[in-house]
Amino acid sequence: MFTLDLDPYAIILTSLFILILQKLLSITGKSKIQNQVWQFYTRYLSQSKSIKLYNGKQNEIRGLTREQKAISAQDQYAKWTKLNRSLDKLKKEVQELSESIQSEKLKVDGLTSLLLSLLVTLPIWVMRIFCRKTALFYLRKGVLPDYLEWWLALPFFKSGTIGLTCWMFAVNNVLAMAALLISFPFAKAVAKPVNPKGRS
């Protein structure tokens, strides 16, 4: 089967970069990234009339709401009622536009999800398939017990060799621990447990 003949250091650094990127994306969360992409798309890329109309009507609603709050419903009842009818009409139009925009958002979210997968998942699998038999580095004899050296060399190498599978496993675990250590101080505090009465 075809394998990529890459320098071991290039494989180590490339896989490290991709795994760090993958961890950052998982910490950020796909939905947050999709929301940011959607906001960027609606602001700079979209040519959709529905989105432009939606934004225009939202601005109208904000303006009419401010105007309505500035007057008294008792003192200027006719004007207040007219503004209220206009607001109801605009809100109904915004609701209809929102439904048509939602289908466009689903397409953008789907494309974003696909691009994220291509960015971080596909390269990992390509490396796992085509670089799986490249020895990345070797352990000095006697550094670890024989059975551990044998286990680390699985599934393709002789004892004492470290390949991509073992390297990625180690990097993923180190990144997970680093993420935990960094996020721990910012995590929500947990209340100290209190023993119920009668228990020691």
UniProtKB/TrEMBL annotation:
Q: Where is this protein localized, as stated in its record?
A: Endoplasmic reticulum membrane; Golgi apparatus membrane
Quick check: keyword Glycoprotein in the entry?
A: no
Q: Which InterPro entries match?
A: Get1, Get1_fungi, Helix_hairpin_bin_sf
Enumerate the UniProt keywords alphabetically: Coiled coil, Endoplasmic reticulum, ER-Golgi transport, Golgi apparatus, Membrane, Transmembrane, Transmembrane helix, Transport
Instruction: Tell me the residue ranges located in the Lumenal compartment per UniProt.
Output: 1-11
According to its UniProt entry, this protein's organism is Lodderomyces beijingensis
- Family, per entry: Belongs to the WRB/GET1 family.
Q: Which residues form a coiled coil?
A: 80-107
Q: What is this protein called?
A: Golgi to ER traffic protein 1
Q: What is the recorded function of this protein according to its Swiss-Prot or TrEMBL entry? A: Required for the post-translational delivery of tail-anchored (TA) proteins to the endoplasmic reticulum. Together with GET2, acts as a membrane receptor for soluble GET3, which recognizes and selectively binds the transmembrane domain of TA proteins in the cytosol. The GET complex cooperates with the HDEL receptor ERD2 to mediate the ATP-dependent retrieval of resident ER proteins that contain a C-terminal H-D-E-L retention signal from the Golgi to the ER.
Query: Topologically, how does it sit relative to the membrane?
Result: Multi-pass membrane protein
The domain of life is Eukaryota
